[in-house]
Each structure stands twice: as C-alpha cells, then as structure tokens.
C-alpha cells in the first residue's frame, strides 16, 4: 500500500498478526489500531503468506515475490524459485494472465506484483468472478 501524508490510513492489527512495514517484519503482541500518516511499504496480515501455507503453484509464485520484497538480501534465491515454478508450469493460470504481474517483478515493483497476483488468486477461488473485480476493494 502506498500512501502519502495527505491520505492517512487507519489499520487494525490483531494480536499475534504479522505485518511488514518499510523493511521490517513485525508481529503485534497485542491488538492495536494504527493511524498511519506516511509509509512507503505496508503489507497487512492478509497480504502475507507463510511458507507452510503455500498450497498451489500460484501461491508459490506469490510467496517468492513476497520474499523478494521482505528479504531482498536473498533475492537471487527467490528469483530462482520463481523461474523454476514458472518453468514447471503445472497448475498455473494461463501465462497471459500472469504477464502483468511478471512485468512488475522484472521492474522490482514487488508490492504491485503481489496485488496483481492476489486478484488472480481471488479469481481462482471464485470462478464466477474471474475477469471481473469488485471496485470497492483496495489492495
């Protein structure tokens, strides 16, 4: 989520939830409501996936992109995993559907790529919605 000082955001973080804020992976010890005035990079708990939670090839792609953002010192490792996943191809959506997200990864726009992949994953979960996206939801 990119925000500027003129558009503050309020976020509720549940006890024990992890979130990523400007280079730091954090865990809330208690439930807290945050008023965020300015931030370059913020990933809410619903945007993070643990390695143990990965069940599909698309989630695996998402995980590799997420890790490029969270652990840039291991970027080469995550890129290799991403390439291997794409090369295997089994269980992935049509490459044309993935192309916009992959272009964002090439440009190191990881947070935007993750937003694109979340849209694709939501479409997989609800096939009736594929191709249409609710406009009221913001990533």
From TrEMBL:
<keyword id="KW-0282">Flagellum</keyword>
<keyword id="KW-0678">Repressor</keyword>
<feature type="compositionally biased region" description="Polar residues">
    <location>
        <begin position="128"/>
        <end position="139"/>
    </location>
</feature>
<dbReference type="GO" id="GO:0006402">
    <property type="term" value="P:mRNA catabolic process"/>
</dbReference>
<dbReference type="GO" id="GO:1902209">
    <property type="term" value="P:negative regulation of bacterial-type flagellum assembly"/>
</dbReference>
<dbReference type="InterPro" id="IPR009967">
    <property type="entry name" value="Flagellum_FlbT"/>
</dbReference>
<keyword id="KW-1005">Bacterial flagellum biogenesis</keyword>
<keyword id="KW-0694">RNA-binding</keyword>
<dbReference type="GO" id="GO:0044781">
    <property type="term" value="P:bacterial-type flagellum organization"/>
</dbReference>
<dbReference type="GO" id="GO:0048027">
    <property type="term" value="F:mRNA 5'-UTR binding"/>
</dbReference>
<dbReference type="Pfam" id="PF07378">
    <property type="entry name" value="FlbT"/>
</dbReference>
<keyword id="KW-0966">Cell projection</keyword>
<keyword id="KW-0969">Cilium</keyword>
<feature type="region of interest" description="Disordered">
    <location>
        <begin position="118"/>
        <end position="139"/>
    </location>
</feature>
<protein>
    <submittedName>
        <fullName>Flagellar FlbT family protein</fullName>
    </submittedName>
</protein>
